[in-house]
Amino acid sequence: MSDSADLLDETVPHDEEEQVTHKLIGEIVDAISDSDAALAHGLFEDLHPADAADAVEQLSYDQQIALAELAPRVFGGEMLAELQDDTRADIINELDPGHLAEAIQDLDSDDMTLVVEDLDPEMRARVLAEVSDSDRERLESSLAFEEDTAGRLMQREFVAAPTFWSVGNTIDHMRRAGEDLPDLFFEVFVVDEAFKPVGSIPVSRLMRCGRDVRLADIMVAPQAIIRPDRDQEEVAYLFEKYHMISAPVVDDDGRLSGMLTVDDMVDVIQEENKEDMLALAGVNEAGSSDTVWSSVRARAPWLLVNLGTAVLASGVIAMFEGAIAQLVALAVLMPIVASMGGNAGTQSLAVAVRAIASRDLTVSNAARVIWREFAAGAVNGLIFAILMGAIAGVWFQSFTLAWVIALAMIINLACAGLAGILVPLGLKRFGADPAVASSVFVTTVTDVVGFFVFLGLGAMVLL
Amino acid sequence: MSDSADLLDETVPHDEEEQVTHKLIGEIVDAISDSDAALAHGLFEDLHPADAADAVEQLSYDQQIALAELAPRVFGGEMLAELQDDTRADIINELDPGHLAEAIQDLDSDDMTLVVEDLDPEMRARVLAEVSDSDRERLESSLAFEEDTAGRLMQREFVAAPTFWSVGNTIDHMRRAGEDLPDLFFEVFVVDEAFKPVGSIPVSRLMRCGRDVRLADIMVAPQAIIRPDRDQEEVAYLFEKYHMISAPVVDDDGRLSGMLTVDDMVDVIQEENKEDMLALAGVNEAGSSDTVWSSVRARAPWLLVNLGTAVLASGVIAMFEGAIAQLVALAVLMPIVASMGGNAGTQSLAVAVRAIASRDLTVSNAARVIWREFAAGAVNGLIFAILMGAIAGVWFQSFTLAWVIALAMIINLACAGLAGILVPLGLKRFGADPAVASSVFVTTVTDVVGFFVFLGLGAMVLL
Q1: Which of A126, B38, B68, B394 is most deeply buried (CB count within 10 A of its CB)?
Q2: Inter-chain contact A343–B302, Cβ cutoff 8 Å?
Q3: Nearest to A380 among B303, B318, B332 (CB)
Q4: Which CATH number fits the domain A292-462, given the four candidates 3.40.50.300, 1.10.357.20, 3.30.980.10, 3.10.580.10?
Q5: How far apart are CA A257 and CA A250, in angstroms?
Q6: For residue B199, what are the β-bridge partners?
Q7: What Gene3D superfamilies does the entry give (chains A, B) (predicted)?
Q8: Nearest CA in chain B to A26
C-alpha cells in the first residue's frame, strides 16, 4: 500500500514519487548477482504487487530467471497476475509447480486462469494436479474457452439474488456468504428461477434502500448480457460505451455463470490499443519482448513484405531507366513524390483504423468519409504541388519540371487519401484486422503511383 | 436500456445487434430533410444516451446542426456528455442557452463541466446565468482548473465518513442523504477531523460487515490521493496500474474535494491512445474531425515538415548526380535502401513510444533497450542485406553492386533501430511528447543515411 504522504508531497518530482526507483532496481540487480535471497525477498516485501511486477519487468530476461530461482516467494499470485503476458509466460515455466499452485490459490478465478493459461502443457498438468478440486474444476472450465474471449476473462465469483428477495435478505446473504464472494464487486445480479440474469443493482443503490424494499422494484435491466465466446475487444467496447462497471456472463442456456469487471476491461483496452499501434508500424504480436532475437522475429516478417513491395516500386523506376539517364533531376526528385504520398496515406490510414476501432466509421457514413479522405488528399496535394513546383522550378531552372512534379503530387496525394481509407475498409470487409498489413499496402500504392506518374509524365514531357 | 433478449439472440449477426443501425440513421436523415421534428424526437426516444450520441456522430456536420435546430430535445444532458469532444463542441454552441442549462441540471458535476467547457465564452456566460446557484459555483470551481487535469475531471459528489463512525452510522447517513450523493459510487472515503482522506472502504466490503464495526477497523489507506492539478494521463496510469475503481481528489490543504471514477479514466485512456496513434502518423489533434477543411488543416503541418525533410534527402541524392548519370541502377535501387530503413525505424519507434507510455522504458533499462534496438536493426539488416544483395546481383548482373547494397542495408537498418529508440527518448528528455514529431525525425535519418551510404559507396566502388 503506498504511503499517502509521499503521494501528497508536491516538492517530490514525479519520478521520485514512483515506488519502483532506479535505486531499487540497482539493489535488486545486486541481490541477484550476490545470490542474496534474503535481501531479494526483503526488497520486494513492502511493494504493491503491481509495483513488484513493474520492478521485475525492468530486469533483463536472464535476471528475471535468476530471480525466480533465487527467490521464488517474490513471485506471489497477485504479482504474477500483474505481470505483462510475455514476461509472465517466460517466468512461470521456471517456477516450481508446487509453489505456483500455492501462489494462485487465493486469487479470484479470472486471475488464476491468467497465470495458468501461459504454462506449457506439462507444467499446466502438474499445477492442476496440485490445486484444490474446486479450483481445478473452475480452471478447467475457464481454459475450455478460447483465448481472448469473455469466458477466459470472467471470474466465477459473483453475487446473485432472486427477484423475490428484499434488500434485507440480500445484505444478510452477503454477510453470511463471506469467503465465497469475490474480493470486490460493484453490482448484485438479480436472477429468475432458471438462474437467468434479469436485472442488476449497483451496490451503492442497494445500500441506500430500506431493508424491506424488493429487489424487483429497484433493479434495472442489465446493460449487456455477455456470452462466454464473445471476443474480448467487443466486450471492452460495450464497457467503454455504456460506462459499465461489471457485466454478467451466461452459459449456453442463458444461466448466469460469471462476471466481468471494468478493471480487467481496462487491461483489454490497453492490449488492443497496443496491438493496433504495433500492427500499424509492422511489428508482430510479441512486439515489446525483451531479447534481440525475439525483436528480430517480431519484425522480420513485415520487413520481408516491405522488401517485396520496395522491389516492385524499383521495377517501376527501372521502366524509366532511359529517361533518368537523360535527366538525372528525375531521380533526385522522385523520392519526394513517393515520400509525400506515403505520409499522406499513413495519415488517412491512422484516422481510418482509429475510426473503425471506435465504431465511428460505419456503413452509414463510409461514403462521406471516403469522399473526405480523397478530397483532403487532393487539397493537400494541391497545396504541396504549388510549393514543390516552385522549389523544383527554382532548383532545376525548369518550368516544365515544376509542373510535372506538381501534377504528380496532386495525383499521388489524392490516391494516398483513397488508399488510406479503402485498404483498411477492404481488409475489414474480408474479415482481417484493418490495422495489420494496411501500412504495407498503402505505401505500396503511394510508391508505385508516385514513381509511375512522376517518371511517366517526366518521360513524356521532358524528353 | 437495451433489450437483453436482443443481446442474447445468437442468430443475430454482430452488426444487427447494434442499436444504431444503418436503417435508423437513414430514418433520422429523412426526418431531418423532411423537417419532421416529431419523427426525429421519436427515433431518439428509446435510445440509450450513448447510442443516441453514436447516431448523431454518424451524421454529417450539416445534418447535426440541422438536427439541433429541428429537435433540440434530442440533445439531453446525458447524451451531450456522451458525444465525442469535437462533435460536442460543434453542436452545443448551436443550442439555446436556456435549453442547455435545463439539459445539464441533473448531471453529475464532472459531466456538467464536460458540456460547459466547450462553449464559447459568451454562450458559457449565458448558460452559467441560467443554472442554479449551487451548480454555478461547482462549475466555476471546476473550470478554474486547467483542461486535462484531475480537477476538471473530478465530480464533486462523493461519500465521506469520519473515522469514528460505525458501518451502521454510514449506512444510515447514505439512506438519509439521498439526492446529494453521486448516482453511483464504489467506495466510501474515510476522513479525519480536518476532512483529509485517510482511508477508503469498498461499498461491497462495507455491506458485508456488521453494523457495529468501526470504519477505522476496516478501511485501507487510499491507493492514491490525487491533487487536482495532476495531469489526466498520469492519473489514468495509476488507475490502470493499481486496478482502482475510484480515487479521492484533495484541495491545496489536503482536504477531500472530489472523486474520480474508473469510467471517466477509460475515456482518458482511449483519448491518450488515440492521440499517440495519430501523432505517430503525423496527424494533429483534431484528427477525426468531419469536414474536408478540418482534415486538411490537421494534416498539412506535418506534410510541410515532411516536404522539408524529403527535399533534404533529395539534396543528398543531388550530390551523386554524376554517379547516377553513369549508372542508373543506383537510382533504381536507392529507394529500397531508404524504404527498408524507414520501415525498421518505424517499428523501433512504435515499440519505444508504447514502452514509454506504459512506463516500461525507464532509466533502469534504457541502456539495454537501446542496445536491443540497435542489435535487432543490425541483425535484420544482415538478413535483408543477404537477400537484397542476391536480388540486386541477379537483376543487374553485378557482384559489386550486390555487396554495395548489402552493406548499405546493414548500416541503414542499424541506424534505423538506433534512431527509432533515441529520437523518442530525446524528445522525452526535452519535455516533448515522444509520439509527436518522432516519425519525421526517424524517417529523415533513414532517408539521409540510406541515400548517402548507398550512393556514396556506389560512387566510390563502381565508377
Answers
A1: B68
A2: yes
A3: B303
A4: 1.10.357.20
A5: 5
A6: B190
A7: CBS-domain, MgtE N-terminal domain-like, SLC41 divalent cation transporters, integral membrane domain
A8: B364
